TrEMBL record:
PANTHER family: RFBJ PROTEIN, UNDECAPRENYL-PHOSPHATE 4-DEOXY-4-FORMAMIDO-L-ARABINOSE TRANSFERASE-RELATED. Gene3D superfamilies: Spore Coat Polysaccharide Biosynthesis Protein SpsA, Chain A. Residues 6-159 form the Glycosyltransferase 2-like domain. This is Glycosyltransferase 2-like domain-containing protein. InterPro entries: Glyco_trans_2-like, Glycosyltransferase_2, Nucleotide-diphossugar_trans.
Length: 210
């Protein structure tokens, strides 16, 4: 059985991170790494109490940096597959099974979770924003994908060792796609469900204007 590690970057997520960790564990995935990206609240304590391995950045370095830290730690701990997902509750842990399956079957090295494939999974204003980002990513990488900004992804161990990212912020997702092309990694998109609450939407708005 391949070792699956779940990496969750988190910044000031004390309200939901504990529940997210518990929900992931309920799906049978207990190797969970939360990277607290310099939170000013009790994100670390909440994640640790819920059973996660916690790595803490002393300062807020950005989602890309936090994700990279988590992936590197997972590989060092022996992960065969690494799944990344957000810590604000918008991703369903039930979808982990679907995003790892193509890698478990040795069909692909990277699986990109896509909200665009799942009808109704993304608010209309996010669809417009995402289409613009998809076009920029296409020009940047040469790869056309339906959801270039999704943080819900799965990687084989081999892919993790090749994706030598440098982006620290939200451009990280697009950089990954460029590196998939550069290293000629096999990839596929998989539909994921997304729960947009007032809480997660407010955080997304902050990301859009930052």
């Amino acid at each position: 059985m391949k070792a699956v590690y779940i990496v969750i970057p988190a910044y000031d997520e004390e309200k939901l991170i504990g529940q997210v960790v518990q929900d992931v564990a309920k799906e049978g995935f207990t190797s969970i790494i939360v990277v607290d990206d310099g939170s000013s609240d009790t994100t670390s304590q909440a994640a640790q109490s819920a059973g996660a391995i916690v790595i803490r950045h002393r300062i807020n370095r950005g989602k890309g940096a936090a994700t990279r830290t988590g992936i590197e730690a997972a590989v060092q701990l022996g992960a065969d597959i690494v799944v990344t997902m957000d810590g604000d509750g918008q991703h369903s842990p039930k979808d982990i099974h679907a995003v790892i399956q193509p890698i478990m079957e040795n069909k692909y090295e990277v699986v990109l979770g896509s909200r665009q494939i799942s009808k109704g999974a993304m608010p209309s204003h996010k669809i417009v924003h995402n289409k613009i980002a998809n076009t920029i990513t296409l020009l940047y990488s040469g790869i056309r994908v339906q959801d270039s900004q999704s943080g819900f992804r799965a990687y084989s161990r081999h892919a993790c060792t090749l994706l030598d990212t440098t982006s620290d912020s939200y451009e990280y997702e697009s950089e990954i796609i460029r590196l998939i092309a550069a290293h000629k990694l096999s990839y596929v998109e998989a539909p994921i469900s997304t729960l947009y609450t007032d809480y997660s939407t407010s955080k997304l708005h902050k990301q859009d204007i930052s």
